[in-house]
């Protein structure tokens, strides 16, 4: 059962071992004191980067250091779904993840709670090129080399989460963020879970694996499917189901596409290695999908799947060039899920 939420007389919210107030978040017993040396009043907010049903993301600047940040503002913490999303983000501040952070996961800097306004502010690393979804819409189909560089970073993030016993459960292009230098970072852990296997239903149906859509037990192999679907979307320039099966986006249609139709495949403009990588990720049976660390090996890209290995020497500059191709305005930088 969900642990209770309490408020102190000083205006702090205490939830699942975290004490959060306008000075920031304090994690007990992992760490004494606050996570960061600044307070919310030190963050100057500016333009809106994206909006969701119950949240908004704004660009901010730490006036003490000049660091540019993103600030995700959640509505009432009395909403249990928002509290679950908050707790998932807070997990990234735990000691074991802070000691060995991944460069492929958006960094959570601090979390602030204002009791008078009943607002939670999550201060995040700023990814100044917005989401992968935005770049696909603006730049179109990714060349194979670019798709390889983006995909390897998504899988390095997945491998890091897998090693720490965390499923993301909502891998999609809008949750893959980019920097202008071409770095790729996984974001939005509002649906993540620490169990290696799970049965609950959350996330975005178009990217869900067959076992999830059928309500069966699933594992991190479901994230592998979703990441494979993101790779296909980069290469198709649109969601594969839309391109191959039509515009019906109903839940029933998603089950039909994922479980009864042949999985969409890349055309001959992409190599056998690229098509083979996608087929492994999108195998109907979870047991036929390799774990993230087998497809993309941290510290040994040349020993990874050939789709990754053949482009191992290529850096983020290739992704940055693709981003620049679509740099014209196409709406907000981010699509916020909660």
UniProtKB/TrEMBL annotation:
Belongs to the protein kinase superfamily. STE Ser/Thr protein kinase family. MAP kinase kinase subfamily. PROSITE patterns: PROTEIN_KINASE_ATP, PROTEIN_KINASE_DOM, PROTEIN_KINASE_ST. One of its GO terms (molecular function) is protein serine/threonine kinase activity. It comes from the Eukaryota. ATP binds at residue 72. SUPFAM superfamilies: Protein kinase-like (PK-like) (SSF56112). Residues 43-308 form the Protein kinase domain. SMART domains: S_TKc (SM00220). It comes from Hemiselmis tepida. Its EC number is 2.7.12.2. This is mitogen-activated protein kinase kinase.
């Amino acid at each position: 059962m969900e642990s209770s939420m309490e408020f102190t007389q000083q205006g702090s919210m205490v939830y699942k071992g975290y004490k959060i107030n306008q000075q920031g978040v304090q994690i007990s017993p992992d760490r004494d004191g606050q996570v960061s040396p600044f307070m919310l009043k030190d963050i100057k907010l500016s333009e809106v980067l994206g909006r969701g049903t119950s949240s908004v993301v704004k660009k901010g600047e730490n006036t003490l250091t000049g660091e540019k940040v993103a600030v995700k503002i959640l509505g009432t913490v009395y909403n249990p779904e928002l509290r679950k999303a908050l707790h998932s983000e807070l997990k990234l501040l735990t000691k074991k993840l802070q000691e060995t952070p991944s460069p492929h996961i958006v960094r959570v800097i601090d979390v602030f709670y204002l009791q008078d306004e009943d607002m939670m502010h999550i201060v995040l690393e700023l990814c100044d090129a917005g989401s992968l979804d935005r770049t696909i819409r603006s730049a179109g189909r990714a060349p194979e080399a670019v798709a390889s560089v983006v995909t390897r970073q998504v899988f390095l993030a997945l491998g890091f989460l897998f090693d720490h016993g965390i499923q993301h459960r909502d891998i999609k292009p809008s949750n893959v963020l980019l920097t202008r230098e071409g770095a790729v970072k996984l974001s939005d852990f509002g649906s993540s879970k620490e169990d290696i296997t799970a049965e609950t239903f959350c996330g975005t149906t178009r990217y869900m694996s067959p076992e999830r859509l059928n309500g069966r037990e699933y594992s991190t192999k479901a994230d592998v499917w979703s990441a494979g679907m993101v790779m296909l979307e980069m290469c198709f320039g649109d969601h594969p189901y839309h391109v191959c099966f039509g515009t019906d986006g109903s839940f029933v249609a998603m089950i039909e596409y994922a479980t009864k139709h042949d999985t969409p495949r890349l055309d001959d403009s992409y190599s056998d290695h690229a098509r083979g990588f996608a087929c492994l990720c999108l195998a109907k049976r979870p047991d036929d999908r390799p774990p993230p660390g087998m497809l993309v090996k941290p510290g040994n890209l040349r020993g990874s799947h050939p789709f990754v290995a053949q482009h191992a020497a290529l850096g983020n500059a290739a992704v940055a060039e693709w981003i620049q191709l679509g740099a014209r305005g196409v709406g907000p930088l981010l699509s916020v899920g909660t």
